[in-house]
Amino acid sequence: MCPPPEDKAIPAGDAENGETRSNLKKIIGFLALMNVGCLIAIIVMATNKSSSSSPAGAVEAPPAPAEVPVAAPVEPEPMPEAPKEVPVEEPAVEDVVEDEFEEEEPAEEPAEETVVEEEVEEEPEVEETVELSAEELSLAAFLDAKGVSSFFADAEDNTCAGKKIALDNDLCVNMEVAPQAGANVTKGYVGGLEVGELAPNTKPYYQSSMCPVNVHWHLGSEHYSAGEYDENGDGPHGNQPRPDWAQRERDLAEGKVRDGFRCNHYDAADEKFTKEYDWKHCEGMEVGETYEVHWPHSAAGACGTVNQYQTPFYDGVFCNLNMETLVTLQAQDIANAVGVHGQVFTIVNDEEYFYPDLIRGMLVDGEHGQDMAIYTGSTTGTSRSNEVCSAYAPITWQVDRKCHMISASSFDKMCYDMKMQRDDMSGDLHAHGSRELVHDKYVANNQYDKATRE
Questions:
Q1: CB atoms within 10 A of CB 356
Q2: What is the Cα–Cα distance from 15 to 9, expressed in whole angstroms?
Q3: How confident is the model at residue 203 (pLDDT cuts 50, 70, 90)?
Q4: Which of 75, 309, 352, 439 shows the greatest Cβ crowding within 10 Å of its Cβ?
Q5: Would you say the pTM of this structure is higher than 0.70?
Q6: Which residues of 86-110 are buried (b: 16+ CB within 10 A; e: fewer)?
Q7: Do 340 and 214 meet the contact criterion of CB atoms below 8 Å apart?
Q8: Backbone angles phi, psi at 345, to 5 degrees
């Protein structure tokens, strides 16, 4: 216990102040009570409001949501049975769909085949784009340009086109003085047909204002040179024996490509005669085979112009000669103005034997073009034989007696050059058939030997 306060005298002013303070305390106490009362009232009201929105059991509500997820799966338990029935029905639906597809498959197959065909057609273009060499791309670009160039587009610009003068073949017995080719050109051989004073042109052709107007070649040799290209030669497909006239006629009747004689170079054990070459421009050529190349010349050709080389070669030979003029010419005039160079080669896959300019004419270098047989004859080819002769006679033949090896690339380069000409020479990019060796009685007796060229 605290000791009681001591009694002290209170001044009058202080008594009034004390009374005032006492009144203030009362007021403050009253206000405090009212605030507390208001606060209590607010709490009570808030509580009453919460009680009115949530029932008394709401306190136990949290377990209720937990029961709802449990109860939800229980009620749809029958639902899993529905999917079980669906798979039972689905096969039937799928079967129907498959049946429909099976019925529609025949209609869809052509479309699928068409797509495959289109893809197959597009594949070569992709391969060519990848595999073309620089040379091939250059040629492709040239041919594209050739297709749109006015230099090649107007056929009338080719002044030699269609200039061939047609002279029909005839029975040999009906021809008076029409010596034939290809003949035996072995040194010392003399034909059996008397031709009088008719003589071949023994000059180099350029000295007679003649130029090459074409180049083409024959499978095997049409001429015969003992020890060079004869029945003892060989190749990938063998050789021809000395002429069996009856057998040759049967082969021709059966549509076989008549081939000539082979050179004596072929050796199956030597790779250069057997290794394949990837031909880009020539057609149907084969390493190891023998080919006789012909360069027809004419003084009536379009010499020194873009129209000089022609296929067929007759267009080039008669480019500046018409029938009216031709019938006025004597046999010797023709022999002096029209001739053919002939040279025989065995193809090898060896660049040591490469020559880059075969289109220009016969090779005259070293042994090439040195041992020459010269005589008057005719045009050759498989449409002529020893019964049916050519009316394109007499013309001069200058034939190299030697067989030479030459690289496959040399021939392919020549074919490339042929594609570069204004005239379309595609008809001469392959080997032609060979005429059978002409019988002695149709070979002129005016053979001329020329061991060296001037």
A1: 11
A2: 10
A3: very high
A4: 309
A5: no
A6: eeeeeeeeeeeeeeeeeeeeeeeee
A7: no
A8: -135, 150
